[in-house]
Design a protein that fits this description.
elongated, 3 helices, three-stranded antiparallel β-sheet, binds zinc ion, Pantoate--beta-alanine Ligase, Chain: A,domain 2, mainly alpha
Length: 110
């Protein structure tokens, strides 16, 4: 629910930017929103993966989470619309997902 509210706020602010005629900023904001959504899905997949691991310090690779095979959490590795690379850095207490363009997925965005 919190995610939907946050997404609504982001879309509303993106719509306001369009109203001001700032198309480039709107497109950048749209890419950022899409990227955050991708990272949230990766974090969710990583958390599901982590439940099944016996070693809590193990960090999943993107290919552990994504692929067409059965048992993967996502059908393919999501792509950042701005061309960023995703990386999963830590699985100790939370799954940290980063994008090389948009940075670390903030915890408040969960
Ligand atoms: Zn990104």
């Amino acid at each position: 629910m919190k995610k939907l509210i946050l997404l609504g706020i982001m879309l509303a602010s993106a719509a306001i930017l369009v109203g001001c005629g700032k198309k480039a900023e709107y497109e950048a904001e749209l890419q950022r929103i899409t990227c955050i959504s991708n990272m949230q899905q990766l974090r969710g997949a990583g958390e599901s993966w982590k439940i099944l691991q016996t070693d809590p310090s193990k960090v999943p690779a993107l290919t552990d989470l994504c692929g067409p095979e059965d048992g993967k959490y996502m059908k393919s590795i999501p792509e950042c619309p701005a061309g960023g690379e995703y990386q999963i850095k830590n699985a100790e207490s939370t799954i940290d997902v980063t994008c090389s363009v948009h940075g670390l997925l903030a915890n408040e965005a969960q």
